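Single Protein Entry

Contents — chain, fold
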Amino acid sequence: MIKIFTLVILCFSILKFSVQGQITFHDYSANTITGDSVSLSQFKGKKLLVVNTASYCGYTPQFQQLESLYNQYKTHNFEIIGFPCNDFGGQDPYDDSTIYDFCQKNYGVTFQMMSKVSIVKGDTVAVYKWLQNAKLNGVKTVHVNWNFNKFLIDENGHWVKYFSSTTLPTDTAIINWILKPTSISLNENLSGNNLIALKSVNSNASSIELLVNGQSASAIFIGLYAIEGRIIGTIYNGKINGSEIISYPVSSLPNGIYIIKAEGAGTNQTIKFAIQR
């Protein structure tokens, strides 16, 4: 079924800006607690809870709940990233090695811990500038005010929500967000020459919407494939003059990773996406 919107060209421009122009969490890098430099783009496709931790705080027992949350939901494309910080009450004064040993010995932490950072004192680490500043994250300005403040980041690296120290990691709002149905693009290599863009998914992941650039009424074939390459169905086959939004049902598909392939106007494009209910 094809839905044509009057303002679709404007919508296409907005989508391209959100993908290409907006800085995301994935654009940053950080050092792990064991000394490795990593790109945060490695978490693309994952929902993230980002938390600043401390070893000697009244909220330190939240390590146990964080670990429990991680163990229960890590199979739901969910990860936790902990950033030790000594800015709040001087409650994490030791080096990374000591912090790592503390987390292992006392709470058996297996989620990703990073090297100790500065958040409000000295030179704030770049990713926390992004987390706290609407001009960078494009959503909201907040100020980390104590240990165990929490941020939710979606699968495409976009800022979602902030929680203070008093919100437990196992709060219903966090769990409901982890379990919320999603269908997300895992590779956003979009440009003005692209045929398609994964635009949205409805509330229960029963259909996806593609924004299709017709490129002078050229014939376009768009197919849906399983991750191993088996074709599942034809999303569209024909000519499109201008840009249109195409809706395609996916309610019968189980959770997993899928591929959309588009061919036309001398261009081939592949988008990988995941369904998580």
